[in-house]
Amino acid sequence: MSDNGNKITLTIDGRQVTVDRGTTVLEAARSIGIDIPTFCWHPKLKSVGACRMCYVEIEKFRTLAVSCATECLPDMVVHTRSEKVLQGRKAVLEFILLNHPLDCPTCDKGGECDLQDHTFAHGIDDSRFDFPKYRFKRDPKSTFDDYRIGPEIIRNQNRCILCYKCVRANKEIFGEHDLGVFQRGNLAEIDAAPGEKVDSLYSGNLVEICPVGALTNTDFRYKVRVWKTKQVKSICQYCADGCNLTLWARRNRIFRATSRRNDDIDEGWICDRGRYGYQVANAEDRLTTPLVKKGEHHVEVTWDEAIKTIAARFREIKDKKGGVCIGGLAYPGLDSASLYTVSKFFRTILNTNSIDFRYDYKMLPEKAGDVYSEMTAQPFSITGIEKSDLILVLASHLINEHPITHLRVRKAVTKLGSKLYTVNPFATKSGDISTDEIIYRLGTLEALINGVCMALTEQSNEIKTKYADKLKSLIAPSSVEAASKISGVEKERIHNLARAILDAKNVTVIVGEILTGSATRENMASAISNMLLISGIPAKGQVGFLSKYANSMGAQRLGVMPHLPDATVERLKELWDNYPEQPGLAADRILLAGRKEEIDSIFVMGCDPLLLYPDGEFVRESLETLDFLVVADMFESKTTAMADVVLPLAGPAEMSGSFVNIEGRIQTFDKAINPPGQALPGYEIMNRLAAEMKNPLYESDRQLHDEITMLLDMNHKAPAIMDVQEAKYIAEEPGDEYNIALVVTDELHHFGHLTEKTKSLSAFCAESFLEISPALAEKYHAQNGTLLRVESEVGKVILPVRISEHIDNNVAMIYKNFAATPVNVLQMRKRRVDYVRLSRVEEK
Amino acid sequence: MNFIRTVFVALPKGFLTTLKHLFKKPVTRKYPYERQEMFPRYRGKHYLEIYDDGSERCVCCGLCAASCPADAIYMEGAENEKGERYAKVYEINLLRCIYCGYCEEACPEEAIFLGHEYEFSDDNRDSFIYTKEQMLANRPKKEKPFKRIIRKVRRIF
To answer: What is the CATH code of the structural domain delimited by A132-282?
Structure first.
């Protein structure tokens, strides 16, 4: 009997195959290695059977069946290569080619086109149609029918075979509605929705999944033929999701990046930042030679001279005042080897612990083992999101911070039926699919979470007897009413959230950048830790305090922090011949010490604190006071302009190395091209510097690799949450004058200080702007593009307005990625929430 | 007897041959003042063809480079102001090229041809990188007679 519970046995091309009930014939055939040609089928999308290419013959079926939309039935007998099937495929291809232009020589898809391949394999050599082909033409005067539907995407309808993959993926996977099919039959065309542009964060994927050249992008347009390039495996260098990429390189230049599907992380989708962000490697204004400041100007020097200059100054400072007078800031988007060597250089050669990767955090803790660090080390997996029936997104603009995690959350909610609660100070894209989108007043997350804790105690007797008294003494506000009043969230919604947490069997909690970037990070983390402890979430699910940069997790594990857990310190003492005993300074303390002239020199590796540290005035004063500033970076920035020595740094595409993503997964990438000019990878710079000062950091690449592997492979499991922490909300009311809360974040298509150097991402957005709600805009009589002056107590900037339906709550959002308008001058490092006031710029 | 035969028969016979050649057209040419007219299908230095309106035929599809057995062709595509594809860089390494004519055969736009030019000497290797501008300038004034036929044949198949 072949119908056995949930398993079905059928015969395909004379071979028996057993599959789950509900599997399609196509999937069953693929599972035993029988290839059926397809156009419209995609493993991550629902089948529609639009292209009819996957015809198979099934015995007792009257006609040929579309295998991607036919479910397996017991005792089916399928033929995939019979005479009838081959004839059917030929006919389908002949129809598809009916109006398909013969412009393969100019088409970017040529060489990797499904239609080319299938026609070659299954089609007929000739066409029986001799009438002219139907032509779509937007502009009757032009000879050309390419039409731009987004900043990066060009559509050529004549090439389209109407497989609808782009439209389906856009709706099903990305939740965008900016692309659709218009007209019908022969005239059907794919187009942007009226008045819209295809400019979502995921738009590049539509080009990648197009089986023909109907959708192409400006990035790759006409530049090179795919068969001339070599493919290099790489990892995205921006956010910490760690999507797998393929870089297509030729003659020392990268031409594009595409997804290298990894079902554990990205499922074959990547965001546009990753897709077009590789262009930083090709940018023309890269630093190519070391520069030393002589008098007022930077002068080009050789590596030897630059290294000798730095070594001499460092030795001088070290001998006179000790290594503690030198601090280090490292960019957490660097590869593991560079981060490790920076840490090793500071600790073994300079004998100081003052090295930190958290260069853009406000107010860092002064000791190891703080609640926040422990929470970030909790195990988290992206696939684990799918297993949860409740997903809680706290203080995270998820699509902005972790676009691919957002897609996984979307999948869990829309396809697998999980519940989603978002708790944010403003409306976000994730909120569109949530059961409840809770919007609290900015800066009151502790109060709200404490409210949830109290609601949990009210709803569950078990929790009440165990924790209620403790909680009451340690947290404030300690009632749901008070929390509701402070945070501005209705009582019922807090209770509903508590109910949902109690009912859920498996919970994923995602905590993001709004918490990380806050000055009261520790307090919020404690509040969340309390909530997790009393609801028992770590035992039934997972907690992800998502770190931001590509290698933040790696930096943490490799010890690029002043205060390390004991286990790491032990291991480092074993590895190295000396380990400094004196406690080091965290990033903001290094800058503070610089301002107080307690530190004479700072070594900045790969980052731009002057643009991104959330207190512009403070960091500028600090760097100006320094005696000696060394900056290694890929580009000239305001920080390099102040530096005494500037070193050209190679980017991740120009070396091989590894990143550690949010899950703690170590992923390696290969070298695609050579660094421009004399630029060197970070580890090489540190090694040369160490060799000049004392002795090299590593003898061979093997040794370096072994040391890194040993550290990364250590058991980094965070200790379990043991007890209720103190988490008191301290009110911080806005003044009368400055009363609009400010959120400074990454622009949707940008990340950090590097992406503005890319042409494609600048096509989406090239300058900073102020995003406010329609109500607020009305108050200042502002339309899109009106210039408004944004003033805080410490600084002011003038920015164009963009009105967004997404924001409310008296919040102004500003984007920090653009060197032309440094917006961190508005921020103050001690403030939990920065408040600003707006005013119109009077036109002259 | 023998002597008489040599003087009166053999010598005049020999001189007659010389005399005959005095009035014949010489086999050798005064190269470089005179150049040889090559056979119609001779494959020499490449040239790029243009349309009647002066625009380039080449669309930088890369098929010539793909078919090249010696990997002598390098090209970089770009978009021109009309939005069409064209070759921003088109280089043939004449030292690598084996003059097989596959590029001519592969070209879907009938843009590249092997001409009748056969003078290849120079004193440095760099000058053998034959650029697009040189190839466009190298276009013969008179159309290669076979080209019309090739085009006609192509149109039929």
So the answer is: 3.30.70.20
